[in-house]
């Protein structure tokens, strides 16, 4: 005798799949989703503040970004300066929004006359007949010797970009000419995909080894920090001549410095994360030792992010797959205020949302991008009441703070929130970029 219909189970990456089973992408959970790639993988990129205003919500969207390649030969690498235009609201999202609008009108007690319904139905049919708009990639390439481990744009001057290469060189570039060309370009220029421009770097500093850690100060314009695989950290000060004075090494870590983050409020304070499992807080006025230190993870600390809206909160991600949140007012071993072990691989990036202080996102080697909202709490009764018979109930080990999961990319490395388009995210992986906005973010 067979039991009645079973509720489906939540599938998590790493779970076994039956023979012939495949995962399907659900377009209805995205307001927009677009994928694109270059001829080489990019481990790192940055989204650029632009002239189009903030906050902006109306589709279609345009955004600007810079990325660094990992080519098969050192001389084949380049910085990709990009504009993505025509990021349109998807058909599925438009239909969902119309259904929500219709339901809201009915709830408010509006008359729902035939003319209103005909207008809504006509709009739906028009969209169904039309073709889905495709985003366009505009690009300028700047020659770069060596694979690019990390690239970051100066927040106060987005055309000023720093790159850290596997040659051990940190270089600062002025990409204003390339960005100005892209701003005025209505359609992708013919041949722009293949042409690589030669531009002289504004400043070059060679570390004792390659590295992955660079960050610009959001408080002191032009101030840069860089950290290498031999545990050395240097702070760069801009000079009136348009160059930088690179100071002596900050010493304290016992292994590779993996990430750096400047304080969002104090111009002399920055944080570092290391393979030695620690996070350290530094003051530029004291090079010989860090101000604070904490054993943050059970393995390498790969990435950190300083909350710009709540400046005493710091998030970290480690090789142990854990996402941890720290209160800098009470920083000590084991003092994290949140600890999520959802990811099944090393955390490869973490970033707080720029306009929602309780929200952040992570990427992981398990090929997931997870969006978290620390303000959410589990309510089992509400979950049961809202879940249709055909929907799976969230398992007890699934954190209620997990708001959204994006997957489908291979070897995911880095993500960023757009600083001016609410909810827009971009992620990079070995197989290219995804640009998307979840419906619930």
UniProtKB/TrEMBL annotation:
Ranges in coiled-coil conformation: none
Compositionally biased region (Acidic residues): 111-134
Major localization class: nucleus
Alphabetical GO biological process terms: ribosome biogenesis
Classification via SUPFAM superfamilies: WD40 repeat-like
Gene3D superfamilies in UniProt: YVTN repeat-like/Quinoprotein amine dehydrogenase
Keyword Nucleus listed: yes
WD repeat ranges per the UniProt record: 250-292, 294-330, 340-374
Family per similarity comment: Belongs to the WD repeat RBAP46/RBAP48/MSI1 family.
Ranges for domain Histone-binding protein RBBP4-like N-terminal: 21-86
Official protein name in the record: Glutamate-rich WD repeat-containing protein 1
Signal sequence segment: none
Record-level GO cellular component terms: nucleolus
UniProt feature, compositional bias: Basic and acidic residues: 98-110
Keyword Nucleus tagged: yes
InterPro entries, A to Z: Glutamate-rich_WD_repeat, Histone-bd_RBBP4-like_N, WD40/YVTN_repeat-like_dom_sf, WD40_PAC1, WD40_repeat_CS, WD40_repeat_dom_sf, WD40_rpt
Alphabetized UniProt keyword annotations: Nucleus, Repeat, WD repeat
Region (Disordered): 98-135
Pfam family, one: WD40
Cell compartment(s), UniProt: Nucleus
């Amino acid at each position: 005798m067979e039991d009645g219909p079973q509720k489906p189970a939540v599938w998590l990456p790493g779970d076994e799949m039956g023979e012939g089973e495949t995962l399907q992408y659900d377009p209805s959970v995205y307001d927009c989703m677009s994928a694109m790639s270059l001829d080489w993988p990019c481990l790192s990129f940055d989204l650029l503040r632009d002239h189009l205003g903030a906050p902006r919500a109306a589709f279609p969207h345009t955004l600007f970004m810079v990325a660094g390649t990992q080519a098969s030969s050192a001389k084949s690498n380049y910085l990709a300066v990009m504009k993505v235009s025509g990021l349109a609201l998807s058909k599925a999202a438009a239909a969902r929004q119309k259904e929500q609008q219709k339901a809201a009108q009915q709830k408010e007690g509006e008359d729902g006359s035939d003319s209103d319904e005909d207008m809504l139905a006509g709009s739906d049919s028009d969209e169904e007949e039309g073709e889905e708009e495709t985003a366009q990639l505009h690009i300028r390439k700047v020659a770069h010797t060596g694979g690019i481990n990390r690239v970051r744009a100066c927040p106060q001057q987005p055309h000023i970009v720093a790159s850290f290469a596997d040659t051990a060189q940190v270089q600062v570039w002025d990409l204003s000419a390339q960005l100005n060309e892209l701003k005025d370009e209505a359609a992708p220029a013919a041949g722009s995909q293949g042409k690589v421009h030669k531009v002289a770097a504004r400043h070059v500093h060679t570390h004792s080894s390659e590295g992955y850690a660079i960050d610009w100060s959001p408080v002191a314009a032009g101030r840069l920090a860089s950290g290498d695989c031999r545990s050395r950290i240097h702070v760069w000060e801009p000079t009136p001549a348009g160059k930088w004075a690179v100071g002596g090494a900050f010493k304290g870590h016992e292994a590779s410095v993996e990430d750096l983050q400047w304080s969002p409020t104090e111009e002399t304070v920055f944080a570092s994360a290391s393979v030695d499992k620690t996070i350290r807080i530094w003051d530029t006025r004291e090079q010989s030792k860090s101000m604070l230190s904490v054993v943050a993870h059970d393995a390498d600390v790969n990435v950190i992010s300083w909350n710009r809206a709540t400046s005493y909160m710091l998030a970290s991600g480690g090789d142990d797959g854990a996402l941890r949140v720290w209160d800098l007012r009470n920083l000590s071993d084991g003092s994290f205020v949140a600890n999520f072990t959802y990811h099944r691989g090393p955390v490869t990036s973490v970033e707080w949302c720029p306009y929602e202080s309780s929200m952040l996102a992570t990427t992981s080697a398990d090929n997931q991008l997870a969006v978290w909202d620390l303000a959410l709490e589990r309510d089992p009764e509400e979950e049961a009441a809202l879940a249709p018979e055909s929907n799976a109930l969230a398992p007890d080990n699934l954190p209620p703070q997990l708001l959204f999961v994006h997957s489908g990319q291979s070897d995911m490395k880095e993500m960023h929130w757009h600083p001016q388009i609410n909810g827009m995210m971009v992620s990079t992986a070995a197989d290219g970029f995804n640009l998307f906005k979840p419906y619930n973010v």
